Amino acid sequence: MVVEAAKEELARHCNSSSEADVDTESLRLLESSLDRVAELSKTLLKKLDEVHKLQDTFENAVHSLNRNITSLNKSHREGERKAASKANESLAEYHYLIPTAGGRFARLFLGTHNVRFQRRKDRMMFKEQYESFKQSCVPLFIALCILCLVFQRTRWLHMLLQLLLAYYYVTLALQENILEKNGSNIKRWWIIHHYLSIVEAVVLVTWPNSDSYAQFCRPLHWYGLLNSVIQFFQTRYQKARLYARRALGKAGEMDVSNADSSAVIVHWHEGMKILIPLVLVGQAFQLYVSIVLFRIYNAHRTEPHILLCGLLFLIMFFGNLSTTVYTLQEKAKEKEECGPDESRVGFAPMLRKRSPFRQFCNIDTQQQPLHTSIWVMW
What we know:
Blueprint: H1 2-16, H2 24-73, H3 78-92, H4 104-110, H5 120-150, H6 155-181, H7 188-205, H8 211-247, H9 268-299, H10 304-345, H11 356-361
Helix pairs in contact: 1-2, 2-3, 5-6, 5-8, 6-7, 7-10, 8-9, 9-10
């Protein structure tokens, strides 16, 4: 063993060295640490083997139960179908113990590899890397948008920006698929929004350096600059909300800053009065960009990618706007239900029972995405 070899080396060193060169106490502590590591490694390997065997047994039992549920669902007797439905609901509470390969998008990149982390440390580290990645990219996008506005005829610079955006959205979509399987309550629209953004970035990268692109590049990069600035302020606001909700005990540790909750009203008057107008201006600009694309397409009917870009911008505009309106309606309704005192302090009744999965990930069952993000989409 490696540990035994290290101990023999220590013994030889002690025998061949003078007392002045060797601190016997330090060597004794080192040898004791090596013994402890060796003992713990044996125990850990034994426990892991037991856990893996128990995991296999549990998965086989789940597969057997699923087969029984499927069989009962095909039955013509109503009582059997109801029993199957109740069993399926009970089984759903333990799905966090079953390995999963993530969504279809995650499987495209990772195959059928398990993406559900069993250790809290791994979940938290992955979430922190996700948050850090988003924050670190915003200043880069702002700088590149400014450079693209200054050097409007430098096509390779524009393509570099679009390639970085494609990488950015692919990474976000992949990470969010994994976070969703580990308990983060990320609204589905924002993952779909990232899929659309990937397609948009690819279309813009492959857009020829033609007259149509020359007409479109200026409003495109102004839009990108505006949204990058909005995302910068929005990220700061969302992180402040998330920290406040955690301090109030209303947010789980796996909640991310783009999956805010309407269960607690924090900084509504201070932050949202500034953020909401900025978001609405950005969405209006998004509609303007789609209209510009449709006008350009009327003059260049032989270039279908212009029409595709216009449709993508229009779809994302309606999706973002509907999410924002829904959020504002939910906020107004909750303020009425909670009353002025509760909404100002930030406490709202939370009486729903927490499922084992939420307890396992320390996530609130009442969490609803509140943010009105439009993200960065050129």
